[in-house]
């Protein structure tokens, strides 16, 4: 698969904003079972090898799992504070849990687990997220976590963009470009009014 | 109306992050007519007087208008980069356009128009957003815009939170608190696992 035309602009934004650790955070919107929107900050974990899918990690106990099973569609909003530009990336979501049958995706799950920090790995052993905090809550010691075998709670989440909206606030007027993937797998690029 | 219990934490975050202009930006998720999520960065314009509603501004020609007419529900995700904390605010959205009959909300629309910058005001006179850029596109000179009378394209957008999820990444483990508004207008506060 060839790189999508918006990839070079995103790579440039990541490069120019690299002084800010938060430039690798973005907001992922999904839809709840009741039809209401949900929105949270997640961390960009790079692209799937040879593809345009963005990697995110999540806990199988997270609320977004149910939302994605209900409807596997997401929109990322990624604002870069140094260069003042925004990417909105909409597309299909794929959950890769411990049970996922695809060996390539399972390998990506394993390698992502190896790449994250001890601190990030330890969070998958914490008490059930969203439940009332209890004095009895135990936290697993970090040294006991196997770097080579992902926690069963550890889930890789992929977003495969089909529509990308790139807005650059610098400029008068601002610059905005739409990238839309058609049915034959071709990206169509249109400069639009901001 | 009394201030909601999460207001003091949000005020503290705004204060502690005030060195960063982007600390007044957040991401607003809505749902499209086709049931897919949408997500974009918008600017916080303060609270409605004597209330907990957050003010946003938008253009009546923006795609989010149709989405909000379809379903008036939104979730804000607001990440503060200095203090490393996130507020997720879910609630009902109210559009206050030039035609809105409520005199108080219309007054809020007028005063918000007066408070924004000349540059922000000028954007409401730009060519139709999202349409292909044309060489013929004209941009209105800023000096001609009336500060006392909002453009008909100018819309005030309010989000009235009913659920607030406050996560502080600092701390081991992290601190997370849920605020839920019940039917009698009381905010219930629960500390939960992150």
TrEMBL record, chains A, B:
<dbReference type="InterPro" id="IPR024015">
    <property type="entry name" value="Pyridox_Oxase_FMN-dep_Alr4036"/>
</dbReference>
<dbReference type="InterPro" id="IPR024624">
    <property type="entry name" value="Pyridox_Oxase_Alr4036_FMN-bd"/>
</dbReference>
<dbReference type="InterPro" id="IPR012349">
    <property type="entry name" value="Split_barrel_FMN-bd"/>
</dbReference>
<feature type="domain" description="Pyridoxamine 5'-phosphate oxidase Alr4036 family FMN-binding">
    <location>
        <begin position="4"/>
        <end position="96"/>
    </location>
</feature>
<dbReference type="GO" id="GO:0010181">
    <property type="term" value="F:FMN binding"/>
</dbReference>
<dbReference type="Pfam" id="PF12766">
    <property type="entry name" value="Pyridox_oxase_2"/>
</dbReference>
<protein>
    <submittedName>
        <fullName>Pyridoxamine 5'-phosphate oxidase</fullName>
    </submittedName>
</protein>
